[in-house]
Design goal:
It is built from three helices and five strands; from the N terminus they run βαβββαβα. It is α/β, with parallel strands linked by helices.
Length: 114
Amino acid sequence: MKSIALKENKDFRRLYYRGKSEAASCLVTYVMKSNFSVTRVGITSGKKIGNAVKRNRARRLIRAAFSEYEGRLNGYYDIVFVARTRTAQVKMQDVQRQMEEQLRKLGVLSEKAD
């Protein structure tokens, strides 16, 4: 199941205010059931993370980590991942571990692997 990018500010704001969330040391995840028959994913990284190189690395890590779980979602969701200051300094495996834990707690990830 392929996802598309979430780009509109109003969609991000809707998730921040109405979506369920989970936070960890290097990642915050907001999730809400999608009104569309496709999963939409948004990734944000603020200036607190560092310069453009660090922000882009953080987004790249999150995008790569999500690609591992994309096929295991149990439905269609709007998901926003917010990078934290530590995201740019940790390894890919740390981001994956935290992401899997958060998606499980939020009830988005199914147990079966494709």
